[in-house]
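Forum > Structural Biology > Help requests

Title: Can anyone predict the 3D structure of General secretion pathway protein E?

Hi all, first post here. I have the sequence for General secretion pathway protein E but no way to get a structure on my laptop. I'd be grateful if someone could post the structure tokens.
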Amino acid sequence: MSSGDGEGGHPRSRANTPAAAREAEVRDVEVHDIEVHEIQVREAEDESVIERRAIARVSLEPPRLALEVARDDELDPVLDALRPDLGPPDLGAPDLEAPAPATRSTFRAAVRPESASAPKPRRRDDPTTAIVRTARASSPPAIVPEEPPDRLAQLASEIARSGPDHLAALGPRALREGLPLLPRIAREFPGLLWLDLAHLRPRTRADQISAACAVLAAFGTASGPHLAALLAPGHAWHVRVCAARVAAQAPSAELVEPLVRALADDDATIADFAALALCAHQGQPALAAMLGRLRVALVDRSAPPFWRRTAARTFGRMREAASVPLLVEALADAEPIATAARDALRILTARDHGAYRLPWRFWWRAQRTRGRAAWLLEALDQDSPALRSRAFQELVLLTGDDLGRRHATVAREDAPALRAAYEPMLAAARAAR
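Reply #1:
Sure, ran it for you. Structure tokens for General secretion pathway protein E below:
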């Protein structure tokens, strides 16, 4: 009997023919593997029998050998992540198309592993690998050394935190360092305060306020630019008060304009200490020119009211006795110039003759030949306690001696004793001039 290759064969034989087997193998092809069968044809009595037996299985997965080779070659997966444009290495995956029609010889060849050629992995030539290897092999960068500490800044900080007991040692050290220390002292100004500024007295020295104040006062005129910056309205109240007090002991041409501006400050303490500091600048040409402009502004009714009021305040706080007739005439002006002129007259004379010009004119005609010291001594004996206290405070400013009195209240019966104590001091001051 024939082998069953014809079209009219038995249906069972048709299913077991080699062609049908090949078609079934092609349909069974998957991505993962191929199963190899051995087919035998055996002749029976009345029919041909085809027997099929699986003899091998070929895997189509990418060979693991390529991955091991890639690992041995130090293909770092981190580099693949950092360089996505290069893509993964080509491991030579096999073609997954349907195989050609199989014959007995091809089946036998697929069984022999030595004849199957595994795809060779292709190593990717990545220039980044060599760069990274070189960077890894190099030594770590040297530690950047810290900058040496600023010796002047440390000294300024020590001065700002020191108390009165350390001033004797720190003062000479600061003077030896010279001018480069001044900007650092200004940044720490005024430092640790040794007293309550609310009770600051006009005759309080800089070395009684803080160590930073004492050092700036010791540098004298060289501290002028730094004190001028500290007097600006942008600084805190205690900074400006201390700067005005130090400016009285370190007169400088740079301080005249900032101090005059401080006279117009709304805070009376700052304005008063600025006026006292200006009194120490009497020999400065800049101050003389400024006072001349203020006199013109006070008598010029067309001048801005702000400057006219500032002029009246300045003459009173600077204790300018020669400005009394100008202030008397300013009483006829509108507010707030008239009020500023009256306040200045009370400071200068320790008296109050009212808001009208006539009483003040009579007083001025009688007292203009006498000095301001005589006005104050006579003002100790008047009815108003406030004006008696004002006269005593002005005498303290003139002489620098409060006679050991710890309160500003002055009784009327104390006037003879106070006059007897202050007259010799005032005479000595006049002789010294």
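The beta strands are 33-43, 48-59. Residues 56 and 228 are 101 Å apart (CA to CA).
Shout if anything looks off.
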